[in-house]
Amino acid sequence: MNTNLQEFLNSPLAIGGKTIANRLVLAPMAGLTHIAFREVLALYGGYGLLYTGMAGAKSVPHENPKVSTVFSWREEELEHTVCQIFGSVPETMAQAAQRIEAEGFFGVDINCGCSARAICRYGSGAALLAKPDLAAQVVRAVRKAVNIPVIVKFRTGWKDDPAHAVSMARLFRDEGADALIFHPRVAPDLRTRPPKWEYIGLVKDAVEVPVFGNGNVISLDDAAKMLSMSGCDGVALGRIALAQPWIMAQWSQGMAPALDDYKTAGTAMASFCAKRFEPRTAFLRFMKFSPYYCANFQFGHALHKRLFAAKEIDNIIPVLEDFFQSAPPLNKRPTPGLFV
Ligand SMILES: Cc1cc2nc3c(=O)[nH]c(=O)nc-3n(C[C@H](O)[C@H](O)[C@H](O)COP(=O)(O)O)c2cc1C
Prior knowledge:
Elements (H helix, E strand, L loop, with lengths): L2 H7 L3 E3 L2 E3 L3 E3 L8 H8 L7 E7 L24 E6 L3 H14 L3 E6 L4 H4 L11 H14 L4 E8 L4 H13 L4 E8 L11 H9 L4 E4 L5 H11 L3 E4 L1 H5 L3 H7 L5 H18 L2 H16 L5 H10 L6 H10 L15
Parallel strand pairs: 3-10, 4-5, 5-6, 6-7, 7-8, 8-9, 9-10
Antiparallel strand pairs: 1-2
Helix pairs in contact: 2-11, 3-5, 6-7, 11-12, 11-14, 12-13
The chain binds flavin mononucleotide (FMN).
The site of flavin mononucleotide has 21 residues, from strand 4 and helix 9.
């Protein structure tokens, strides 16, 4: 373990009027970074910030946290959890941000990166990168509405043009964003081509607010390379945190995972999904997590099939118990076909 890197990851960082204790952040992932998965992460710790999945700004003011699968939390995680919203109407985004502040979240994040058709169709997510004036109005309205940190997560844009990313970063900063998470891929590219980490340095150099780099960081070497290439202030981890929920504790605190941790993470995810969601939703949420988790194992495809065939959340733990009987061999890096 590189002690300088570990020290850096554990160094505090000011975001707006608040400070995070550690530079590793869970990236938002819809249907995945929900209350149950964040409880799995909390078994290990090692992070500075957690994220919800994206929540529709229109529905946030009316959400009931007791039944919502997106807008729900544990009290003890609120102070280090950011709620991400998507939308394109400045007043609606501002109202959602006010509810998020009133509930006690660390901050609010504006989604300017999601390129799914269902989101972009209404001008939200990455569609805002094609409309800088509207994006500016959205960030301005949210900034005016709340005192908590405002973060913007965004991509390069719709073309492979780093100058556009730099100008959007300046625009977000000018409108009052306290930090940025930058995923240097063009919007139409889901995750097929590698992200261009060299663009992260351009964004970092353009603004004074903290910039978190994101995209394809799987190993500690990847994190070290992204940080040294770009000088960014921290790293946001998506899929690897799903596959290995201890990864942030491993990198920042030297936790050493054993095969038992793989079993514990899977069984904890199944029981926390069962505790938080209705049985059908619990099973679907577990199955959304399953490919990333199964990507850890040499026979991951077979495990994924067995979990799917289990059909109900209550049948998941017995499948996992059986799978771990034979000390399943691990992959060095997650299987690409599952880790999508
Ligand atoms: C299934 C899935 C859902 C995602 N949902 C969101 C989302 O709700 N909001 C967002 O800003 N990014 C979302 N992302 C993008 C991730 O936050 C992250 O930018 C991307 O996965 C690249 O990081 P990684 O290589 O560390 O996974 C999602 C990614 C995945 C795989």
